[in-house]
Amino acid sequence: MTLQFSPFLPWIAIAAIGIVGLALAALGFWRGLRGSVVRAVALALLVLALANPVFLQEDREALSTIVPVIVDRSQSQDNETRTAQTDAALEGLKERFARYPRIEPRIVEAGDDGTSETPSTRLFDALNAAIADVPRSRVGGAIMITDGQVHDIPDAAAFTGFDAPLHALVTGRPDEFDRRIEVVSAPRFGIVGEKQELKFRVVDDGAGPGGTARVTVRLNGNEIAAENATPGTEQPLEFTVPRGGNNILEFEVAPVEGEITTANNRAVHVIEGIRENLRVLLVSGEPHAGERAWRNLLKSDTAIDLVHFTILRPPEKQDGTPINELSLIAFPTRELFVDKINEFDLIIFDRYQHRGVLPILYYDNIAQYVENGGALLIAAGPEHAGNDSIAGTPLSVVLPAAPTGAMNETPFYPRLSDQGKKHPVTRGLEGANDEPPHWGRWFRTVDVQRPDGNVVMEANDGKPLLVLNRAGKGRVAMLLSDQGWLWARGFEGGGPHVSLYRRTAHWLMQEPALEEEALTARTFGRTLQINRQTIGDAPGEATLKLPSGATQQVALTKAEPGLYRAEVQTTETGLYEITNGDLNALVHVGAVDAPEFKATISTTQTLKPLADATRGTVRRLVDSEGDAVSLPPLLPVSGQVRTVDEGRLSLRMTDETVLKGINSLPLFAGFAGVGLLLLAFSAMWYREGR
Questions:
Q1: What pLDDT is recorded for position 412?
Q2: FRET label pair with 455: which of 119, 353, 399, 619, CA 20 to 30 Å apart?
Q3: In what order do the strands lie in the sheet with 266-274?
Q4: Helix (H) or strand (E) holding 124
Q5: What pLDDT is stored for residue 671 in this prediction?
Q6: Which intervals of the chain are annotated as region Disordered (predicted)?
Q7: How far is 504 from 91, CA to CA, in rounded Å?
Q8: 3-state secondary structure of 13
Q9: pTM above threshold 0.70
């Protein structure tokens, strides 16, 4: 209860009245007048009544003490043992908090929300969010249930704003062990076909078993090495970049019995394969209108080094001019087709016929070049149907179609076949979806027998126009018309000759994006996109293997002819493996060096400095000898926690209250105040009357 004043007059007026009353009382005492004491008391009561004294009594309610409980639900906690310990500790804390009505626990589960590119355990961000709406004086402490692998721990000196005990209940066991593998240094880019070197390391966290670790290395799903690595020692590895575009190196260390998790037993590194300028040999059998279309296209591609020869003077064309007087360059057949044939990525025969320029043995060399992985494109015209056709040479063993000897000379619109609508070389060619196709006509094709491989473009009556086929390790394409130059010249609106020629050439040179049967995957943040390219029927479901080892079936839906796609929202970070039939693909979601997987064994050391600074405790829920969770009791403490109680979780109880109401009692209000004043003045008059 407190006394306050609520004056009826300004304090200056009351002071003036008081001074006058005091002067009158003093004058009365000085002159010895009777009743001076009574007058002084009456005047004092009058001044006090004008000041209006009021007794106030506040009605307050004690506020609860806030205790945030931060539960670690990160991926390092995601195993059966730690999850069970965490759940048991949380239930035990709830029971203990129920015994203290003045303590308000705020339970926050902190884990990877599936949006971060670099997953980590950020418990202190969760702690700050949990108490952001309350003053620090109401926070009685904080309890963290975690494995100790926390990645946002502030310095003890910077944690001064939290003036309450911080306790950590650590899951796991003190004798845990985990083996992991990491890529120490590796190039991000590499020249296709050249040697590259990287270094990897096997790391044993905790008391490892010793000895060596078996590491299997795969490149684009194919095993390229198996190494015995000593844990803690950097191991070099040499490899050759096999193709352009993304190449995925996968390192897998054999699991060890008793280790915490196998999720970090695999590591990946993506290296971008860069081709040196592709070398293309273009041999034109004679000058013709379509020759420049091929030359211009290949010369415009900065990734291609073009070597072009045109046969201007075949052996049968003899006019008696001495060789030393000719300005023509001799065709270096031996150098091109024997000595340096394997240096070319693609050989194009453009309206070429066998007229004795190349010896028969050289055609056999070209066939072997294709079967060993080379690429051959035949752009055929009327010569291919004649007696000097190269189909009559040893090159015929790799050609997908043999000519009948006839030419089809009816005007036609080139059309995509059913396979061509699905094949990445011809799928989506501009103008192909109209009927007739929105491009110009051609006027002749070479008639051939039933071809091998895939007929992706057709002429009249379904006759083959563009045939793609594999021969051994190499590839062959046959364009059975020399009329493509009409599109280049804009005849009847032209056509997509650039796209067609370029895609065909790059398919021959084994561009991964143009494979007709392929399974690829890529990521956009946390979204995993699966693409299945096929020229066959619907491929069915894909099987997705998660980093944790769990699998799920993913339905592939048709996005375009020959292209099926699925998008999956992922929550786990690590290497995903996708399989569909005989095809498989690998993709890594999230950062390859995510802190969540660098160390997974539980520890009490990371949070101990902060616990010591705030007089909190760090203790394990389970010791090395048993499986039962041992949870300490709570200890509410009034005022500051000054000592550490290792056996209990000390919590500072707040003394904060909230005002519910105020009861007031005016001293001179009502009949009691009036009666007191009347009594004083009556006594004054009575004394004076005697």
A1: 94
A2: 353
A3: 189-191, 266-274, 245-253, 213-219, 222-229
A4: helix 123-130
A5: 44
A6: 411-431
A7: 65
A8: helix
A9: no
One-letter amino acid for residue 65 of the chain? T
- What length is written for the chain? 690
As a whole number of angstroms, the distance between CA 425 and CA 455 comes to 11
Cα–Cα dist 221/650, whole Å: 55
At 476, list the tokens: 């062959």
Residues paired with residue 348 on neighbouring β-strands, in sequence order: 282, 377
Interatomic CA distance for residues 521 and 618, integer angstroms: 44
Rounded to whole angstroms, how far apart are CA atoms 89 and 629? 7
| Secondary structure (DSSP) of 286-299 | S--TTHHHHHHHHH
DSSP three-state, residue 475? strand
What's the pLDDT at 680? 57
Contact present, 198 and 269 (Cβ < 8 Å):
yes
Q: Is 42 helix (H, G, I), strand (E, B) or coil?
A: helix
Spatial distance between the Cα atoms of 252 and 434, rounded to a whole number of angstroms: 51
- Rg of the chain (C-alpha set): 46
CB 576 within 8 A of CB 545: yes
Please, what are the averages of pLDDT over each run of 10 residues along the chain (690 residues)?
Answer: 74 78 75 67 72 70 86 83 90 92 90 61 88 87 90 77 87 86 89 89 83 89 88 91 83 87 81 83 85 83 83 60 55 84 91 83 92 93 88 92 91 93 92 90 93 92 93 94 91 91 90 88 87 92 87 93 92 84 83 69 88 90 78 88 86 76 65 55 55
SS3 content of the chain, % helix, strand, coil (to 5): 25, 35, 40
What does the block give as tokens for 111?
């884990």
